[in-house]
Design a protein that fits this description.
Distance between the termini: 40 Å
Strand order of the largest sheet: 1-2-3
Helix content: 25-40%
CATH topology of the domain at 7-56 and 93-117: Rossmann fold
CATH superfamily of the domain at 7-56 and 93-117: NAD(P)-binding Rossmann-like Domain
CATH architecture of the domain at 7-56 and 93-117: 3-Layer(aba) Sandwich
Number of strands: 3
Largest sheet: 3 strands, parallel
Length: 129
Amino acid sequence: MQAAGGGAIVVVSSISGWKPSPQAQYGAAKAAQLHMVSSLARELGGFGLRVNAVSPGSMLIPGKRWDRMRREDPAAFQRFSEEFPGRELVQPDEVADVIAFLLSDESRGVTGVNIPVDKGQNAPTPQGY
C-alpha cells in the first residue's frame, strides 16, 4: 500500500463493540477492534494509510438468525424490529456501500473512525440489553 502512495483499511466490527449485549467476550473482542482502528490510524497515518471501522447492526441475511426468526416466530421478530426506529433491520448492501466509500478516495479525509451502520438500532439483541 505504501509503495502505491497510501491506501485504506476497513475493519468490520459490530455495534456489540460499544452497545452492551450478551456474550461479553464477543463484545470485548469487537471493542478491541475499535481501539485497534484508532491506534493504527495514528501509527500508519504517516505512511499514507487510513484505517477505519464499520460497525453493522443486526442484518437481515437470508437463512441466518434474524431471517429464521422472522419466518419461525413472527411475533418475536416484530418485537425485535422495534429496536430500530424505522422497524427495519440492516441490509448487507447498506454495509457494503459504507465500506466501498471508506475504501475510495472520496473518504481521503476520514481516518480512525467507527461508522455504525445500524439504522439507529437501540440494542443488539431481542433481550433489549
